[in-house]
Write a structure and sequence with these properties.
The protein is built from 5 helices and 9 strands, in the order E-E-E-E-H-E-E-H-E-H-E-H-E-H. It has 238 residues and is α/β, with parallel strands linked by helices. It has a single domain, classed as Nucleoside phosphorylase domain (Rossmann fold). The chain has a 5-stranded mixed β-barrel. Bound molecules: hypoxanthine.
Length: 238
């Protein structure tokens, strides 16, 4: 089974907000819908009800594992730090830097399961990324750029000095959710390709302050990414 995890901007889509099923597992509650055999999981819950630092990432990933999900395309709205991916563009995530803290980001916490040190040399699934890139090109988009995503804890946005430091560290884009989710998906053995779309220049990069794309542009981008994700899933073996 395949799943799409969606966040900001996508949680208004009816597939991520209507007919939700609730489940409870050992980590807590999660919700998703299943449409034509694909799971749609809104990480913030419909209406963006749960802020990034309070998402129950373990319950969400466990819910996917319990459904037998083997492949995930995870979609993230982000801020742009470099010109590699400017606002209004989307791309694949090549790697991440984790600046989140205080989150339950492992199934192997030494309490419920013994410690385990999962390798992260290849943070995302190469075949799934390649399938997404092929699908995007076939649909008439340019080859998706590959970016480095830095995860901040939020919910506040960053300071200009933080963004400057993150650029010096090699980050192209900034968001508040990817690292925690990617860590748990990897531990759960679920293949994951992360796709990001930028909705603003990060702090200090725009003379006007931080200003976000219009809702309509965000909706168009998120529609495009959901449809590319679904086409990617149809193109790979089930
Ligand atoms: N910073 C952090 N998270 C974000 C941003 C940002 O500028 N834009 C969208 N998610």
């Amino acid at each position: 089974m395949k799943a799409i995890i969606g966040g900001t901007g996508i949680d208004g889509d009816r597939r991520f907000s209507e007919g939700m099923e609730w489940v409870v597992n050992r980590y807590g509650q999660a919700m998703y819908s299943v449409i034509d055999g694909v799971v749609f999981l809104p990480r913030h819950a419909p209406g963006h009800a749960i802020p990034p630092h309070r998402i129950n990432y373990r319950a969400n990933v466990q819910a996917l594992a319990d459904l037998g999900v083997d492949s995930v395309i995870s979609i993230y709205a982000v801020g742009s730090i470099t010109r590699r991916m400017s606002p209004g563009r989307f791309g694949l995530v090549r790697d991440f830097i984790d600046f989140a803290f205080g989150r339950e980001n492992t199934f192997y916490d030494g309490v419920e399961a013994p410690a385990k040190h999962t390798p992260f040399v290849t943070p995302f699934d190469s075949a799934l990324k390649a399938a997404f890139a092929r699908t995007a090109i076939e649909a008439g988009h340019p080859l998706p750029v590959e970016t480095v995503y830095i995860t901040t804890n939020g919910p506040r946005l960053e300071t200009p000095a933080e963004i400057e430091a993150f650029r010096n560290m090699g980050a192209d884009i900034v968001g508040m959710t990817l690292a925690t989710e990617a860590e748990l998906l990897m531990e759960a053995g679920i293949r994951n390709a992360a796709v990001a779309y930028s909705i603003n220049w990060a702090a200090g990069l725009d003379a006007e302050g931080v200003s976000f794309l219009e809702d309509e542009s965000i909706r168009r981008l998120s529609d495009t990414l959901i449809s590319l994700a679904l086409r990617t899933f149809s193109a790979i073996p089930s």
